[in-house]
Amino acid sequence: MKQISLLIIAIMASMVINAQDIDKSALRQAIERQLATYPKSQLQDIYKAFYQEHFGAEHMITDKEAARNYLDQELATMQDKRDGIYVEPIGMSGDYVRVYLIAVSHKILSSSQLLQAFIESAGDHKSPTTSWATKWQAIVEVVDEVSPGLGSDDERAMLLQASLNNQAVHHSQAYNAAYHPHYRIVTREIFEKMLKDPEVATQPR
User: Fold this and answer.
1) Residue 128 CB neighbours (<10 A)
2) 57 near 143, Cβ under 8 Å?
3) Which among 92, 135, 177, 202 could disulfide-bond with 26, CB atoms 3.0 to 4.6 Å apart, if both were Cys?
4) Which long-range contacts (CB under 8 A, 24 or more apart) does 189-198 make?
């Protein structure tokens, strides 16, 4: 037991050292943006946003035909009532964006375009040099500065374990109830290529 405890301490110490390379200013801005835009965000919603930036869309696609069927089903049943928000950056780098399915309903782009961009983005992912567990610890430290007390002890323990396993999580119940999110993850580069005028996606109707 003592050896295991010492090993955990050593791992966490290594993560702290590596986390010093993360741009804390950009991290703070991204967290503040998330909480300002979606005040019902829980700690796991912040985890999800940065996880999506870190791993891209690759973890979300196991079968292209299944991805197409799921997109069609979600478009037919979604309750997204947002007005004028079609795309938004996630994380702190700006390399990935969430493209909301309401953009298809409003004919900003077609479902085929979105699916193709989603699939291409999954294949375009580049592995980060910093481990996800290291980045998550840095994120939690900044969250504690920006919004002290966010996340119960149980939630924090669950997310720590998830980060060590490179595991994805769902949006929280509070986030789903408030925002009904329906989107796909796309690289900013592919998204801008997909639209002749990338500014169209951010203009309110």
Assistant:
1) 14
2) no
3) 92
4) 189/95, 189/124, 190/117, 190/120, 190/121, 190/124, 191/87, 191/97, 191/99, 191/117, 194/109, 194/113, 194/116, 194/117, 195/108, 195/109
DSSP calls for 108-155: SS-HHHHHHHHHHHHHT----SS-HHHHHHHHHHHHHHHSTT-S-HHH
Q: Give the 3-state DSSP-derived string for 22-81, with helices as H, strands as E and coil as C.
A: CCHHHHHHHHHHHHHHCCCCCHHHHHHHHHHHHHCCHHHCCCHHHHHHHHHHHHHHCCCC
* pLDDT at position 97: 95
Condensed to tens digits (0 to 9), the pLDDT of residues 169-201 reads 999 999 999 999 999 999 999 888 877 554 444
- Quick check: pTM over 0.85? no
DSSP 94: -
Which residues in the chain show pLDDT less than 70?
1-21, 58-62, 81-83, 124-125, 127, 196-205
CA–CA separation, 163 vs 9, rounded Å?
16
Instruction: Write the CA distances from 6 to 133, 135, 142, integer angstroms.
Output: 18, 21, 26
d(CA 186, CA 98): 6
d(CA 167, CA 160): 10
